[in-house]
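Lab notebook, bench 4. Continuing the backlog of folding jobs that were queued last week. Each job is logged with the same field layout so the records can be merged later without manual cleanup. Today's entry covers protein-ribulosamine 3-kinase, a 382-residue chain. Filled in by technician R.K.

JOB TYPE: sequence-to-structure
TARGET: protein-ribulosamine 3-kinase
LENGTH: 382
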Amino acid sequence: MSLVDSIAHVMTPAEWGKPIDVDEKWIDFVDDNVKSKLPKGSVVESIVPHGASYWTRTAEISTLLPDGTPASYFLKVSQGDNGRNMTAGEYASMSALYGVMPKFVPVPIGCGSYAKDPDIHFFVCELVNMTDEVPEIQAFCKQLAQLHYKGLSPNGKYGFHVPTYKGTIPQFPYWHDTWEESFHHSMKWFVYAEERSQGVDEEMRGLCQGIFDKVIPRLLRPLETGGRTLQPRLIHGDIWAGNCSTNIETNQPVIYDGACLYAHNEMEMAAWRPVRHLIGKQYMKAYFDYFPISAPEEDQDDRNLLYYLRWDLKSSALFSGNLRYRNMAKETMRALIAKFPEGYEGWARERGEEPVQRTYSPTSYDFLKKGTDTVEDPDMAA
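JOB STATUS: finished
OUTPUT FIELD FOLLOWS
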């Protein structure tokens, strides 16, 4: 498969309300390879549909452990090459989160492909009984801040060791030394993905160029220059009301459906900006009581708007034919470009700082062509 074909494959349009591609028959039984991931000696009692997903089939597996204790698991099933990487990315994400904050996430059990059909792929984890409400603000923000404090990148770089997915679209995973370069490449990928999904728009192209030339350097370069520093932090990567709740048994917050990266911790709050979101700015305000705003502090709101732009580009790429998110992205880009016409250099001159020049490494989308094995890093800790 060529690189162009690989990109087209992952950019299959997804629509709200479109039937799930995965046949329901794959959650009518527990495949032998799924069983092999469960605790040895487990007896499967039942499997029933559980929860909802735009992209996959989901089910609850009820079992009895060898000592007779009941135990339930959450199964997510996908298909095809993209589905294999989606389930592998989710398992890698949840394993990373569990390794740092084991009480904050369901226990990840495993991933793999069905014995009955190797084109069908799965992720399985502990099933947590959760409320239908978003978690309490203070408890949630305190736990999230702890995740970010403790979850330092094992190699000191930004990125992740496998592609992780926003819906059906992989995130750009390669390792970079600076947050500015990491975000630049991530945004470049989502811009490309959005255009493949929605079609060419010359105004959009011009606005995107302004974001790359002026806005990203202006808002992100100051984070790591002039004596200011960042550390790459483990972020869940997709926190909104649909991916967090409260564990009924412990009354503690829980997060799931991870799309992890080692990133600037403030990107975790990308989706918290719109007033329509239940996890919103009130959570952001509470979070900063536990994890201080990065310097320059006065740029925080504009950085959040830039990170939210990435969220809207991802959403536009996912829902081909629906221009709502593209139009919102355009509005955001116009506002940011108008606010920062002089870019980073103008800001540095105004502050009396010596401008720092940066160049970016070439962009490669080989992770689409070769799958998860392409981004393994020799410096990545086990």
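OBSERVATION: Confidence is low (pLDDT under 50) at residues 1-17, 371-382.
SIGNED: R.K.
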